[in-house]
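Good morning C.,

I know you're traveling, so I'll keep this short. The sequence:
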Amino acid sequence: MPKQIKCPICSKRLLDIQKESSGEIAIKCPQCKHVFYIELHDLQIK
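The tokens, ready to paste straight into the viewer:
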């Protein structure tokens, strides 16, 4: 079952990840335009 990742500012759904995903990504919210860095292995948002 994929887990949904939402923007911590506006709560817009950004992406879905699988449990076995790993790595780190930067993603820009299309609604509020903030950039977030997500560590996929422990789902920390910075």
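Safe travels,
E.
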